[in-house]
Amino acid sequence: MSVEHASMRIIDGYARGGAELAADEVWALEAHLETCRVCRDRLSDAVAAQAPTVAALVDSVWSGLEPQLAAAAPMPRRRYWSARLSRWLTPTMVPWLVMVVGVTLLALLFDLSDTGYGEVSLVLLLAPVLPVLGVAASWARGLDPAYELTASVPRAGLYLVLRRTASVLAMVVPALAVGGWVTGVMVAQWLLPCLAFTSATLALGGVIGVTRAAVAMAGAWAAVVLAPTLAAARTTFALQTGSLPVWGLILALGIGVVIARRGAYSVLGTHR
């Protein structure tokens, strides 16, 4: 497929049923057809020429639907914005995002009330794993009753992964920013680990599934950093400014792996 339009070979093959095309060609064409009217018209002409029975069936169905669609009331503005919001969020994500923000505020209260953890900031300590919990919720098969429909659409791959991850970060990062500002923690000190952990989760999610990756990363953080830090009541190297180059490297590597394995997010396995 060219940069601008699909080739006639792919369009003709798709019009004949797509059996002769590779799976990634079918996926790419369907995603391209969503935004390219020229290729939709070319596909329509190809179907009319090579599959007249299918074209006749479509015309018959359309002739029955057209009067009903013409008489239908326009979508209410509230439903319109709800439909647009659903591209970024699922209803099952909302309670989890509220919980994540609530945990952030609770950690801030502990930081301000001198809970006995010495120099350790709970906001800083929890910053890397909080967005991971939201990402896990956004891809959990058990929490999304429409996951099969979602995973079957042409843009269910990396495009949707990044949208849902961005929606999680849009909720979590401002809450962490407030917590960091109030407690005097440098922005890079919590933001870099937060983004690095999220990118690493997505990178690992392309192999074992996003939800499993999130649980594994959160468990590893709790065992390797969280528990020892609270036990020693002092900030470990992983949370100090000297570790920022390491977090930057992890972030860059995670983004690189996600881009290199972008096709892995188009299968149902990433919802595990």
In short:
With about 270 residues, this protein is an all-alpha fold. About 70% of the residues lie in helices and about 0% in strands.
The oligomeric status of these chains comes to: single chain
Provide a count of the helices. Answer: 13
Helix/strand order, N-terminal first: HHHHHHHHHHHHH
Query: How much of the residues is beta strand, in percent?
Result: under 5%
Unreliably modeled segments? none
Based on secondary structure, the structural category is mainly alpha
The total strand number stands at 0
Principal-axis shape: elongated
Domain module tally: 2
Q: Any idea what the radius of gyration is?
A: 24 Å
Mean pLDDT, as a whole number?
76
Helical proportion, percent range: over 70%
Distance between the termini: 31 Å
Main beta sheet, described?
A: none
Keywords: Membrane, Transmembrane, Transmembrane helix
Protein name: Zf-HC2 domain-containing protein
Transmembrane segments: 88-110, 122-140, 161-182, 188-208, 215-233, 245-264
Provide a descriptive summary of the structure in words.
With 272 residues, the protein is mainly α. The chain has 2 domains: 8-71, no CATH class; 82-271. The chain is built from 13 helices and no strands. The longest helix is centred in the middle third of the chain and has 26 residues, at 158-183. It is elongated, with a radius of gyration of 24 Å. The mean pLDDT is 76.
